[in-house]
Amino acid sequence: GGIMPKLWEVTKLVRSKNAGPFVLTFDIMFDDPEVYTRVRDSGVLNKGLVARLYRQPEEEVLFFNCDNALAIKFSIPRPVFSGDLEDSDIFGGQQYAPLLEIEVPWAP
Protein backbone atom coordinates (compact mmCIF):
# COMPACT_ATOMS: atom_id res chain seq x y z
CA GLY A 1 0.00 0.00 0.00
CA GLY A 2 0.94 3.61 -0.16
CA ILE A 3 0.09 6.72 1.70
CA MET A 4 -3.63 7.45 1.49
CA PRO A 5 -4.31 11.00 2.70
CA LYS A 6 -7.88 12.15 3.16
CA LEU A 7 -9.23 14.68 0.70
CA TRP A 8 -9.42 17.39 3.36
CA GLU A 9 -5.68 16.99 3.97
CA VAL A 10 -4.66 17.84 0.40
CA THR A 11 -7.15 20.58 -0.52
CA LYS A 12 -7.34 24.29 0.14
CA LEU A 13 -11.14 24.32 0.38
CA VAL A 14 -14.04 21.90 0.03
CA ARG A 15 -17.43 23.56 -0.02
CA SER A 16 -21.03 23.17 -1.09
CA LYS A 17 -23.70 25.74 -1.78
CA ASN A 18 -26.94 26.32 -3.60
CA ALA A 19 -26.90 26.92 -7.33
CA GLY A 20 -30.50 28.08 -7.27
CA PRO A 21 -33.27 26.46 -5.20
CA PHE A 22 -33.13 23.09 -6.96
CA VAL A 23 -29.39 22.39 -7.41
CA LEU A 24 -26.40 21.94 -5.09
CA THR A 25 -22.91 22.69 -6.36
CA PHE A 26 -19.65 21.51 -4.84
CA ASP A 27 -16.15 22.97 -5.18
CA ILE A 28 -12.98 21.07 -4.32
CA MET A 29 -10.17 23.61 -4.56
CA PHE A 30 -6.40 23.26 -4.45
CA ASP A 31 -3.60 25.79 -4.04
CA ASP A 32 -0.86 23.58 -5.50
CA PRO A 33 -1.03 22.66 -9.22
CA GLU A 34 0.90 19.41 -8.63
CA VAL A 35 -1.48 18.26 -5.91
CA TYR A 36 -4.51 19.20 -8.03
CA THR A 37 -3.12 17.23 -10.97
CA ARG A 38 -2.38 14.18 -8.79
CA VAL A 39 -5.90 14.12 -7.37
CA ARG A 40 -7.53 14.80 -10.76
CA ASP A 41 -5.49 12.12 -12.52
CA SER A 42 -6.05 9.55 -9.75
CA GLY A 43 -9.68 9.33 -10.86
CA VAL A 44 -10.82 8.90 -7.27
CA LEU A 45 -13.24 11.82 -7.71
CA ASN A 46 -15.71 10.97 -10.45
CA LYS A 47 -19.40 10.95 -11.35
CA GLY A 48 -19.88 7.41 -10.04
CA LEU A 49 -18.51 8.23 -6.60
CA VAL A 50 -20.61 11.39 -6.37
CA ALA A 51 -23.71 9.47 -7.45
CA ARG A 52 -23.12 6.86 -4.73
CA LEU A 53 -22.31 9.36 -1.96
CA TYR A 54 -25.32 11.54 -2.68
CA ARG A 55 -27.73 8.81 -3.81
CA GLN A 56 -28.23 10.29 -7.26
CA PRO A 57 -28.45 8.63 -10.66
CA GLU A 58 -25.06 9.07 -12.34
CA GLU A 59 -26.68 10.83 -15.31
CA GLU A 60 -27.90 13.58 -12.93
CA VAL A 61 -24.35 14.47 -11.84
CA LEU A 62 -22.63 17.32 -13.69
CA PHE A 63 -18.89 16.93 -13.15
CA PHE A 64 -16.05 19.25 -14.21
CA ASN A 65 -12.28 19.40 -13.86
CA CYS A 66 -11.41 23.11 -13.95
CA ASP A 67 -7.68 23.13 -14.63
CA ASN A 68 -7.40 26.92 -14.82
CA ALA A 69 -8.92 27.26 -11.34
CA LEU A 70 -7.20 24.20 -9.79
CA ALA A 71 -10.67 22.94 -8.88
CA ILE A 72 -12.89 19.92 -9.28
CA LYS A 73 -16.55 20.88 -9.36
CA PHE A 74 -19.82 19.03 -9.54
CA SER A 75 -23.52 19.77 -9.27
CA ILE A 76 -26.47 17.56 -8.32
CA PRO A 77 -30.21 18.07 -7.87
CA ARG A 78 -31.19 18.95 -4.33
CA PRO A 79 -33.12 16.13 -2.61
CA VAL A 80 -35.75 18.73 -1.62
CA PHE A 81 -35.82 22.31 -2.81
CA SER A 82 -34.22 25.04 -0.72
CA GLY A 83 -36.65 26.31 1.91
CA ASP A 84 -38.97 23.29 1.74
CA LEU A 85 -40.33 22.18 5.12
CA GLU A 86 -38.17 19.05 4.86
CA ASP A 87 -35.00 20.99 3.96
CA SER A 88 -32.36 20.71 6.68
CA ASP A 89 -29.78 23.00 5.01
CA ILE A 90 -31.40 25.99 3.31
CA PHE A 91 -28.13 27.33 1.84
CA GLY A 92 -26.64 23.90 1.02
CA GLY A 93 -23.49 24.85 2.91
CA GLN A 94 -23.16 21.64 4.95
CA GLN A 95 -23.52 19.06 2.17
CA TYR A 96 -19.79 18.74 1.45
CA ALA A 97 -19.07 16.67 4.59
CA PRO A 98 -19.15 13.19 2.91
CA LEU A 99 -16.30 14.30 0.62
CA LEU A 100 -13.81 15.07 3.37
CA GLU A 101 -12.92 11.49 4.29
CA ILE A 102 -12.36 10.24 0.74
CA GLU A 103 -8.94 8.58 0.57
CA VAL A 104 -6.74 9.85 -2.24
CA PRO A 105 -4.25 7.40 -3.81
CA TRP A 106 -0.83 8.92 -3.27
CA ALA A 107 2.33 7.24 -4.51
CA PRO A 108 5.61 8.90 -3.50
Strand order of the largest sheet: 1-2-4-3
Low-confidence stretches: none
State the helix count: 3
Give the helices and strands as they follow along the chain. Answer: HEEHHEE
Task: Tell me, briefly, the overall form.
Answer: elongated
Mean pLDDT: 94
Helical residue percent band: 10-25%
Beta-strand fraction estimate: 15-25%
Cα distance spanning the termini: 11 Å
Structural class designation: alpha+beta
Main pleated-sheet profile: 4 strands, antiparallel
According to DSSP, the number of beta strands is 4
Radius of gyration: 14 Å
Which SSEs are present, and which pair or pack?
Blueprint: H1 7-10, E1 13-18, E2 23-29, H2 33-42, H3 47-53, E3 62-66, E4 71-77
Antiparallel strand pairs: 1-2, 2-4, 3-4
Could you describe the 3D structure shown?
This protein is an alpha+beta fold. Helices cover 19% and strands 23% of the residues. It contains three helices and four strands; from the N terminus they run H-E-E-H-H-E-E. The chain has a four-stranded antiparallel sheet, with no helix packed on it. The chain is elongated, with a radius of gyration of 14 Å.
